[in-house]
């Protein structure tokens, strides 16, 4: 169904649904810069923004070069998250050698994937290893950080929503792969505009965008708790549906 909606966009709905990740990342960048929460936090949201833009470019063109823009930034985002969890405190502990080592590791993976092992399984293994590393260090930071019960509940909720988004998106992606021909016939039967609701790869983009956003908000709020500032901020919603970290409103005293 390439170029079915537009003569200029190969997969229209798969391209459009990346707007969710781009907008959520932009909100995170705005929030972290506005409240001066640190370059490490901002870098995670920038990584998410690059993932969304790269995915949109790939689905708009379906070229190998833009496919790399879809795949490789996911590795870099996980590496940034890993670094941010390791260096979660205000004072940098490991100097320049840690970011240098992580960058060298990611460069090695990138070059290997580009020139020697052009197999998606290699990319998936490298991504999983980096993501698991970030998750393990992040959970360690969670259990070694003193925080209020309210903050702990908020972090639990963000972690749960993040995993629901990621695994829900993964389920939609697999259903789309297995039942692609059936879904295509159903889309033809219901017609426009209801056929857009059966674009399960697009739902994979939306669900993983929210899953990624909630997990990055988890990391964001955890850093604030680590610095003792979590009582000043909370997760808020722009237009009721787009989450970000904002400053709490002071309570009025009559």
Ordered list of secondary-structure elements with their pairings:
Blueprint lengths: L11 H5 L2 H16 L4 H23 L2 H23 L10 H19 L4 H24 L5 H30 L1 H11 L9 H27 L6 E6 L3 E6 L7
The number of E-state strands comes to: 2
Radius of gyration: 20 Å
Biggest sheet strand line-up: 1-2
Topology order in helix (H) and strand (E) letters: HHHHHHHHHEE
Share of β-strand residues: under 5%
Q: What average pLDDT do the residues reach?
A: 92
Uncertain ranges: none
Estimated structural class: mainly alpha
Oligomer state of the chains in this structure: single chain
Estimate the helix proportion, in percent: over 70%
Shape: globular
Description of the molecule:
Helices cover 70% and strands 5% of the residues. It is mainly alpha-helical. Strands 1-2 form a two-stranded antiparallel ribbon.
Brief write-up:
The protein is mostly helical and 254 residues long.
Which key terms come to mind for this protein?
globular, mainly alpha, 9 helices, two-stranded antiparallel ribbon, 254 residues
């Amino acid at each position: 169904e390439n170029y079915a909606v537009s003569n200029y966009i190969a997969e229209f709905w798969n391209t459009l649904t990346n707007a969710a990740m781009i907008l959520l990342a932009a909100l995170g960048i705005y929030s972290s810069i506005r409240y001066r929460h640190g370059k490490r936090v901002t870098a995670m949201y920038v990584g998410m923004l690059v993932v969304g833009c790269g995915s949109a470019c790939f689905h708009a063109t379906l070229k190998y070069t833009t496919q790399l823009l879809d795949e490789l930034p996911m590795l870099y985002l996980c590496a940034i998250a890993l670094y941010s969890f390791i260096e979660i405190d205000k004072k940098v502990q490991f100097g320049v050698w840690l970011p240098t080592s992580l960058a060298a590791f990611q460069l090695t993976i990138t070059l290997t994937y580009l020139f020697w092992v052009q197999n998606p399984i290699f990319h998936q293994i490298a991504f999983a290893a980096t993501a698991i590393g970030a998750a393990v260090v992040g959970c360690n930071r969670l259990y070694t950080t003193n925080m209020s019960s309210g903050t702990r509940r908020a972090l639990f909720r963000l972690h749960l929503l993040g995993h629901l988004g990621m695994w829900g998106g993964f389920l939609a992606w697999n259903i789309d792969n297995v039942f692609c021909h059936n879904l295509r016939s159903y889309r033809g039967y219901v017609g426009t505009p209801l056929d857009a609701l059966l674009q399960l790869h697009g739902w994979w983009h939306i669900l993983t965008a929210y899953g990624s956003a909630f997990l990055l908000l988890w990391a964001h709020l955890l850093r604030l708790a680590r610095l003792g500032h979590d009582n000043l901020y909370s997760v808020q919603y722009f237009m009721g549906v787009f989450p970000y970290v904002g400053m709490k409103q002071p309570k009025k005293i009559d």
